[in-house]
Write a structure and sequence with these properties.
Elements (H helix, E strand, L loop, with lengths): L4 E5 L6 H18 L5 E5 L2 H11 L5 E5 L16 H6 L4 E4 L2 H6 L4 H13 L3 E6 L3 H5 L3 H13 L4 H4 L2 E5 L13 H18 L2 H6 L1 E5 L4 H8 L6 E4 L6 H9 L3
Parallel strand pairs: 1-2, 1-8, 2-3, 3-4, 4-5, 5-6, 6-7, 7-8
Helix pairs in contact: 1-2, 1-12, 5-7, 7-9, 11-12
This protein binds 2-phosphoglycolic acid (PGA).
Amino acid sequence: MRKKIVAGNWKMNKNFEEGMALVTEIVGMLNDEYQGSAEVVLIPPFTHLNAVSRMVAESKWVKSGAQNCSNHASGAYTGEVSAAMIQSVGAQYVIVGHSERRQYFNEHNDWLARKVDAVLTNQLIAIYCCGETLEEREAGKHFEVLKEQITQGLFHLTQEQMSNIVIAYEPVWAIGTGKTASTQQAQEVHAFIRNLVKEKYNDTVANELTIQYGGSVKPENAAELFASPDIDGALVGGAALQSRSFVDIVKAMP
Ligand code: PGA
């Protein structure tokens, strides 16, 4: 059975105190209310990651992760944070290639492939993001764009390495816009991605791959998304900034 994962990407939100309060609330609510059908990942800014990782260390269902990492191992790269540093504070996941990194920081697939390597070298799990812009969807190019992102970012990996990859499909037009892809649109893309992986690797790798959907996931639409056969979780932005809405999304996983 493949793993279901609901992750909260805080982006550049919450000061330290607010972040600590949010984690305390989420961990407490999950302890009281949760049966554990999904793994939960909290992805705060770097400044909070050490503290968050320690706070969730004892939790049965909650893990922590980073929003980005360097493609270099160490050295004179001012302002960068390595995958080894992330691993050393107890985090387990790293988002690679979020559309905001692709868009505002010019991160391209070949560069992201090196980040994926850095993540895997340090025994972490990469959440590799892919997704088309509105323009690309309207031009009917979304499958082509997704295929390129996935092929160039991931398909240099061995079958064994692929077991430490999660793919997040995040249509750019649905991120932070309140516009969710319809369940049919998301399911169609998720099935396409799983099939790509099957063609490159095999049935087992494809069937075990966790594919998250991201883009305006809310408590109101989560259950319907999660009911689709190829949607194995969510990467949540805005709704992850409040404990109630985030925990309700987590609990929507059947
Ligand atoms: P959103 O962000 O839930 O605010 O749309 C999702 C993401 O960017 O991961």
